[in-house]
């Protein structure tokens, strides 16, 4: 839960108000100046308009140096960030040939597989030589290699489902599968903070979409009961099917899904569950099997398990794991399976190798070590940040930990100052978060050493003091205070 302090809310609103007012004023004058030119449109309506565009021009562009910074290395514990400069107040940013080595607290490299790995990398190189970067074909034509079928079997076994299907992109896995599963006459009930790929998949499906309060099983039950009583719009016929969509770890909140409670509600009302494990698969659970394993949920109770290979496995693509019947149905009907070029073979090999390491099937215990490491690292970093007085969102064991910034001026200040001290941090603002709830998002990796984490904490603490984001200073324990007085 966000604990937005009252005064901060006011100043944040004031800042946005000010930016908005000045932006509008400047837009007004620009329109006056550009008025003679507007005849050039020759009857066409302008293609880019609206408040989002206003936001881009008047807010985002002012701090665009904090986003999309080019990288010149693998996203390991340390990365090379390309230095840029600008001759026009950051309107255009030009690359130099110099790079800065920075501690990487921003990539989803949870298990450290995204950089060279003694087991994965040689196998990926071999598969690149054998299969080339692309199959140049869709799955149902020439795009199914031995590797693709091997990975489908391996993923199914790993997550504990009878079958699985692969897609070239995690985003597409949601946005193309949801419309294949449910359409007109169906009902989707979606967590209010679900990822954009789910939102767009649900919108594109033609089903009725209802949203329940983030991670709130009792509100989910309320919405379900109400919708089942109402039935389909106008006709009030019963829904053809109901699917409840949630995520394992919410990527902007670092929170774990209340899966056991949500499944209990879904079972009671005979709704299917769809679980997006993009950030949780591989990263949490004793053997890396995600939120089901961590929270003691039987995978048989989750109807559709979705995940991506872009985080813990250091590759690209996504999967759906479900019953044989559902997977077969998707293979016959899903356009992203029938009409999109299949996953790149070396990317498939990377996932196969990474899962084998996680399962200990490479003949070492490196997988178990990585899993222990990510948990220790995450819990250490989170508790240290909390002790420093930052407002940190999310749950223990989650490697994602947002630090609340709120004020728009603090976004570039925090990002630039951390970078100056060689710590690369991702800041997130509207539209990825609500306007007032801008944050920095730390992602911890198993490849971080304790020294790395301590360096990161030192810099974040210093910059936090400078920028003024230690919103909840922690009082030292009473006996320490007394001791100080005595001294
Ligand atoms: C919850 C969730 N689902 C899906 C995706 C999309 O996956 P990909 O980035 O692999 O396309 C993401 C990406 O960050 C995500 O966080
Ligand atoms: C441009 O970006 C740099 C950091 O990359 C920053 O120090 C500077 O203040 C920015 N300039 C403006 C006008 O915003
Ligand atoms: C690269 O870094 C060196 C040493 O810090 C500096 O002298 C040089 O000007 C930089 N080059 C560019 C293009 O910024």
TrEMBL record:
<dbReference type="GO" id="GO:0005789">
    <property type="term" value="C:endoplasmic reticulum membrane"/>
</dbReference>
<dbReference type="InterPro" id="IPR015422">
    <property type="entry name" value="PyrdxlP-dep_Trfase_small"/>
</dbReference>
<dbReference type="GO" id="GO:0004758">
    <property type="term" value="F:serine C-palmitoyltransferase activity"/>
</dbReference>
<dbReference type="GO" id="GO:0046512">
    <property type="term" value="P:sphingosine biosynthetic process"/>
</dbReference>
<keyword id="KW-0808">Transferase</keyword>
<feature type="transmembrane region" description="Helical">
    <location>
        <begin position="6"/>
        <end position="25"/>
    </location>
</feature>
<comment type="pathway">
    <text>Lipid metabolism; sphingolipid metabolism.</text>
</comment>
<dbReference type="InterPro" id="IPR001917">
    <property type="entry name" value="Aminotrans_II_pyridoxalP_BS"/>
</dbReference>
<keyword id="KW-0443">Lipid metabolism</keyword>
<dbReference type="GO" id="GO:0030170">
    <property type="term" value="F:pyridoxal phosphate binding"/>
</dbReference>
<feature type="domain" description="Aminotransferase class I/classII large">
    <location>
        <begin position="101"/>
        <end position="460"/>
    </location>
</feature>
<dbReference type="GO" id="GO:0017059">
    <property type="term" value="C:serine palmitoyltransferase complex"/>
</dbReference>
<comment type="pathway">
    <text>Sphingolipid metabolism.</text>
</comment>
<protein>
    <recommendedName>
        <fullName>serine C-palmitoyltransferase</fullName>
        <ecNumber>2.3.1.50</ecNumber>
    </recommendedName>
</protein>
<dbReference type="InterPro" id="IPR015421">
    <property type="entry name" value="PyrdxlP-dep_Trfase_major"/>
</dbReference>
<keyword id="KW-0472">Membrane</keyword>
<dbReference type="Pfam" id="PF00155">
    <property type="entry name" value="Aminotran_1_2"/>
</dbReference>
<keyword id="KW-1133">Transmembrane helix</keyword>
<keyword id="KW-0746">Sphingolipid metabolism</keyword>
<dbReference type="InterPro" id="IPR050087">
    <property type="entry name" value="AON_synthase_class-II"/>
</dbReference>
<keyword id="KW-0812">Transmembrane</keyword>
<dbReference type="GO" id="GO:0046513">
    <property type="term" value="P:ceramide biosynthetic process"/>
</dbReference>
<comment type="similarity">
    <text>Belongs to the class-II pyridoxal-phosphate-dependent aminotransferase family.</text>
</comment>
<keyword id="KW-0663">Pyridoxal phosphate</keyword>
<dbReference type="InterPro" id="IPR004839">
    <property type="entry name" value="Aminotransferase_I/II_large"/>
</dbReference>
<dbReference type="InterPro" id="IPR015424">
    <property type="entry name" value="PyrdxlP-dep_Trfase"/>
</dbReference>
